[in-house]
Design brief:
single chain; 200 residues; alpha+beta; seven-stranded antiparallel beta sheet; 6 helices; 7 strands; globular
Length: 200
């Protein structure tokens, strides 16, 4: 496993593979069952080594850090946020892939973001990322990604925390963090666990 501190103004360029699930993002047509099927399909391919070569990359920053503007996924990946990057090698991934197989439909409850039209400030439905992980081919084609966290201002004027799976908002839950928690440095894992219930 390699851990890199990204230069603040560095740039990481990779090609995105836009799948059928991503095409449905924001349309309100993707349900929990479809999202779980896509998740399981990717994990199954990784486990069976169906791709010639692939990797799991994790980007994260201190979840306690308050920023003057929201942090996008691109900010994490490019290094503009000062995020850290972990590239998980195949041997380690082979040993931990079983954690991903524990994800169930209850962990992927889709949030209808069309109802996010209330509140003030940053926006009704937005991402303020602190952790992002993605399965990619060696060429950089993304096949699955998860982002912590998104936020939705609901009709009651309350801000709900969400997690984005291939761009689809789902209810925040620890299962989607727990699958990669063992792959994080001890200090980072502890920070996320200790600050899980807090917002930014």
């Amino acid at each position: 496993m390699k851990i890199h501190k990204l230069p603040i103004f560095g740039f990481l360029v990779f090609t995105l593979l836009v799948g059928s699930l991503a095409a449905g993002c924001g349309s309100g047509q993707v349900g929990s069952a479809e999202l779980l099927a896509e998740f399981e399909r990717v994990v199954d391919r990784v486990e069976r080594h169906s791709f010639p070569s692939f990797r799991l990359t994790i980007y994260f920053m201190d979840p306690r850090l308050r920023t003057p503007v929201t942090v996008s996924v691109d900010d994490l990946i490019s290094g503009r946020s000062g995020a850290s990057k972990i590239v998980v090698d195949m041997l380690v991934l082979d040993e931990s892939i079983g954690l991903f197989k524990k994800i169930r439909q209850r962990d992927l409850v889709v949030v209808d973001t069309s109802s996010c039209g209330y509140g003030e400030g940053t926006g009704a439905d937005y991402v303020n990322a602190r952790l992002h992980y993605a399965f990619e081919t060696i060429l950089g084609d993304k096949i699955l990604d998860v982002t912590l966290w998104g936020y939705c201002w609901n009709s009651e004027g309350r801000r709900e925390k969400t997690i984005r799976v291939n761009g689809v908002a789902v209810e925040s839950n620890e299962a989607l963090f727990n699958v990669i928690a063992p792959l994080l440095p001890n200090y980072a894992r502890t920070l996320f666990i200790d600050n899980w219930g807090k917002g930014w």
